[in-house]
Each structure stands twice: as C-alpha cells, then as structure tokens.
Amino acid sequence: MREPVHGVDVAYRRAGVGPPLVLVHGAGEDGRLWTPQLRTLSDELTVVAWDEPGAGASGDLPEGFTLADYADALAGLIEALGLAPAPVCGLSWGSTVTLELVRRHPELVSGLVLTGAYAGWKGSLPAEEVAARVAGVDRLLAAPGDDVDLVLPDLFAAGPPAPYADLVGTMAAGVRRESLRTQLSIMAATDLSVSLPEITVPTLLLWGELDARSPLRVAHEMARAIPRSRLVIIPGCGHVTNLERPAAFDREVRAFCRRLLAT
C-alpha cells in the first residue's frame, strides 16, 4: 500500500484490526524488518510498518531531506491512515525519527517503544565513537560496485538469526546509498538528549543485553532522562531485538500496548 505524504509516495504494510501500533525501522532497512510483528501482533492490534522515504518501495528522498522532514512524513502517514494517537515503536535510527516525531507532533503519539535507541549519535555516543562511525560509513559508501555488504557485523549477537537471514540480506541488497548516507549523516549530527525529559507519554525502553551498536549505557541514560519510562533488557540479544528474540520482544510490546489501553 502507498500514501502520498510530505512530497513522497510512502509505502507501508498494514495487518490486523484493533488499536494501532506504528513500527519505524532502522537505517539500511525497510518495513520488512517487522515481518514477525506484522504476523504475531496483528491478532489484537492494527500494525502499520512504513518504508520511510528513500527506503523499500517508497519514493526517493527529496533533496535536502532533514530529520524534521522524516518526522513530518511519519506524522502525515499516521494522520492519513487515521491512527492517531498511536503508540510508536522505533528501532535504532528509527528511534531517533520517533523521538523527533513526538517532539514535533506530540498529539499523534500515545506511547513510545524505543529499542536499540539513540537520541542521535551525537546525543548518545562519545565524540570519538561518532567520528569513527562516520569514517566507517564513508569508507563503506565509497566502495566501488554494487556488491557491498551493508549488513554490519555487530547488529546481532551471533549473526542474523537463521529464520530471517535471507530477509536481512534482501533488505541490505536494496539499500539506496544516498538514503543511507543521509540517514547516518543526520544521526551523526543529531543530539535530542535535551528533549528526553520533556517526553510526557509512557515509554518502554527495550534493549538487547549484548547490543554493541547502542550499548546498555545508552539505555540507562535514557531511562534516567525520560519520565514514566521503563527499561527491559532482553538476555543474550544484540541490537535488532525484534528479529533476534521476537517472542520476548512481542511479549513486552503487547503488554505495553495493553497497559496503554487500560489507562
């Protein structure tokens, strides 16, 4: 399915009936990342997973696209589909987009699930780590030819889980280099840490114990900064919690959405 929002045709997947849950993928990914959740959580929720502008089946990024533009496009999709107010779940880069969404459009968001999250790299990581990541991205994107492995080795605790290895590889093969460059350039320059104490909706922080991309230090800092937040750590899990430990991920997200509905 597709919807024109903020100057881009945005593709999305929708499954189930009931209260909404909006899922926001990370950099170098698209809405297929949420394949398990579209299947399992749709028994009691209307689950919507977008392909952000420049990813998957969505249109290319307009020139000069900013973090605010990503957030406004997500807001436009939520409004166009009549989902508001909705709990929104963001993974990694998607968590930064989600934080900008709730900052700019708080009326659209009833709760947050942030997994493997960042308040932007600048807002969550030491400056030397940000510089090293930027240099690594530059080397990756400068490599000649189309056969470049965009699956970072530290996304998973022990490599892509077997049931989803082909899916991860297919998503990586479809990444548009300019989209990835834009995503990660924005991440490197973004610091949303000052806005974390201003979040007023219930927030679930869902982290892999072995996350090497956004280490547990970041999780604890977010837990201290965000009012009404709760941190859950999934044992033996890396950065992409929803694929590595889908049953544990789904259990926590389902319980969180039920609590929101009960309040």
- The arrangement of helices and strands along the chain is EEEHEHEHEHHHHEHEHH
How far is the first residue's CA from the last residue's CA? Answer: 32 Å
Overall spatial form: globular
- Main β-sheet description: 8 strands, mixed
Assembly classification: single chain
Q: Radius of gyration from the CA trace?
A: 17 Å
Beta strand count? 8
**Share of residues in helices:** 25-40%
Give, in spatial order, the strands making up the sheet with the most strands.
Answer: 1-2-4-3-5-6-7-8
Helix vs. strand class: alpha/beta
Number of helices: 10
Average pLDDT: 94
Kindly estimate the percentage of residues that lie in beta strands according to DSSP. 15-25%
Q: Can you lay out the helices and strands and say which pair or pack?
A:
Layout: E1 2-5, E2 8-15, E3 20-24, H1 35-40, E4 46-50, H2 67-80, E5 86-91, H3 93-104, E6 109-115, H4 121-124, H5 127-142, H6 165-173, H7 177-189, E7 203-208, H8 216-225, E8 229-234, H9 241-244, H10 246-262
Parallel strand pairs: 3-4, 3-5, 5-6, 6-7, 7-8
Antiparallel strand pairs: 1-2, 2-4
Helix pairs in contact: 2-3, 5-7
Short account of what is shown:
By secondary structure, the protein is of the alpha/beta class. It contains ten helices and eight strands.
